[in-house]
Amino acid sequence: MKPHRTIELWFDFSSNYCYPTIMRVESLAAAHGVAVQWRPFLLGPIFKAIGWSSSPLFLHEAKSRYVWRDMCRRAERFGLPFVQPSVFPRRTLLPMRIATLASESSWIGEFCRLSMLAHFGANRDIDTYEAMRGILDHLALPSAGLMADAESETNKALLRRRTEQAMVRGVFGAPMIFVGQEMFWGDDRLEDALEWATR
Amino acid sequence: MKPHRTIELWFDFSSNYCYPTIMRVESLAAAHGVAVQWRPFLLGPIFKAIGWSSSPLFLHEAKSRYVWRDMCRRAERFGLPFVQPSVFPRRTLLPMRIATLASESSWIGEFCRLSMLAHFGANRDIDTYEAMRGILDHLALPSAGLMADAESETNKALLRRRTEQAMVRGVFGAPMIFVGQEMFWGDDRLEDALEWATR
């Protein structure tokens, strides 16, 4: 059997542990000779279907405190800026729709990194036309047209479909990394997933 | 400030992710020049106080399936035998009481490893006099006397006190590793905790 030289990264910009994964994945995958398929989906409807009112990481106070401390340490370890968001979880529907539209484009990685840097590196609301215009301008892309396309019925339906696919495949959190049918959950399994893809 | 050259390992034999940690901790800590303090406590009362009927890892089917697959992969990676327990979570009160009695002894590490190998490496019920006699005999220890001491009111109260201490310190899962006040949760944070202890 040919090894899977591709990983699928299922992500949601609202998820804190997606931040280090999104920042690290392309360079790490390139170093392993592995391609990344970007798979934006919405965690909210999945948590709701499971019966969780929010991420299970944030339903208990001591655990939430721990997760933010863990995020600080991981960000420090990977040399990433990190500010605990003053609003959490944040709405990220517009950037998620743009990511859906762009998921096969050459700029998807850089778009995701800039969005997550604004969200978790600088504590900014990224669910606004202004924030997205700033990032798309930074990438020298036609922001008005892209935002209109992102909000088209076709693209909105595509994001809903991706979310349904995630549910069918057993996704219950993010980041979720697939290597073929093999699932790896969490930023702390990113290296394992890449090793699996190359073995 | 002097570095913390000690880690506290808070554990419960019923927790699956405690298995790889208990198997790995002493040799890994020794390689880092770090001492291990063994801190047995009961997860059940903590989950109950939080309002969880079981570990949050096992309250949803797709997540449970994932955790067992993840356990298989971790066991393979660390060269450990692993059989998914046919009963889970298993009662482990007698071995936990023996661990409480023995937590400052020279044989605590080996006792914990043998108990966890029986539980997660061989799918055996370890909450019996027979299972514990086998392990204590293996260690050439006076099993009858130790089991009686383990079930004394004093020792039972000590385990309850440890569990209360864990709750006060914000423990919400296991393994939980403390380096001073710094908390590290999960087998996948063991190396981070040891690095923290030596920095």
Automatic annotation (TrEMBL), chains A, B:
Domain DSBA-like thioredoxin: from-to ranges: 6-192
A Pfam match: DSBA
Xref: PANTHER family: GLUTATHIONE S-TRANSFERASE KAPPA (PTHR42943), GLUTATHIONE S-TRANSFERASE KAPPA 1 (PTHR42943:SF2)
Record key words, sorted: Isomerase
EC number(s) stated in the UniProt entry for this protein: 5.99.1.4
UniProt enzyme class: isomerase
Family to which the UniProt record says this protein belongs: Belongs to the GST superfamily. NadH family.
The name this protein goes by in its record: 2-hydroxychromene-2-carboxylate isomerase
Reaction equations catalysed: 2-hydroxychromene-2-carboxylate = (3E)-4-(2-hydroxyphenyl)-2-oxobut-3-enoate
